[in-house]
Amino acid sequence: MYLNNKLISDKIKVVNAIFLNKEKILFLGEYYDGNGFNFGFFYFDLNTKTIEKLNIIRSDSLSFFPKLFLQYTGNFKKYENKIVYVNEKSSNAWVIENTEISEFATKDKTPLPTIINSDNNYYYERGKTYNTNSDFFLTEKNVCVFSNRTENKNEIVIDLYKYNGKYVNNS
After folding, report:
1. Taking Cα atoms as reference points, which of 10, 6, 83 lies closest to residue 41?
2. CB count in 10 Å sphere of residue 81
3. What is the DSSP string of the chain?
4. What pTM did the predictor assign?
5. CA atoms of 144 and 146, how far apart (whole Å)
6. Following CA atoms 104, 146, 99, 52 in sequence, which dihedral angle do they give, to the nearest 10 degrees?
């Protein structure tokens, strides 16, 4: 992990991150803890250089970071004390509040993309990869997701979800 072009940890690879304050970063990525590779959500304390595991999606003795990076690409957004991460290529979304995290799936039920490894180069498999969640924004009560995967409309639809993942409606 680099910050301002300075290496701050050689045990971390990051998909995406968000500053919580001047001392703490929340990130989705891979962390090597000395025993194996853990992929998921972590807090990183910039002062102590310590890592706190929040939610592990996958643990393994080998690194699968290039594949997981492509599968879990997405964005963080913050509204007051809630942070949301929405995957761009699948229905996966997470709501983080302090040390609590919950996952929900967007209505389109798009699976994680299939990744092909050819000569240590990683690619999305054609026909099995979709841009499903092009962007999102947060309001006091809702996660508002711009969905590209609708059967009945040839336009982007905004699907509304409560922070607990319950689907509200679309517009």
Report:
1. 83
2. 8
3. -EETTEE--SSEEEEEEEESSSSEEEEEEEEE-SS-EEEEEEEEETTTTEEEEEEEEEEESS--HHHHHHHT-EEEEEETTEEEEEESSSSEEEEEETTEEEEEE-TT-PPPPPEEEETTEEEEPTTS----EEEEEE-SSEEEEEE---SS-SS-EEEEEETTS-EEEE-
4. 0.90
5. 7
6. 100
Q: What is the pLDDT of residues 107-158, one digit of tens each?
A: 888 899 999 999 989 999 988 787 788 889 999 999 999 887 656 666 778 8
Phi, psi (deg, nearest 5) at residue 90: -150, 180
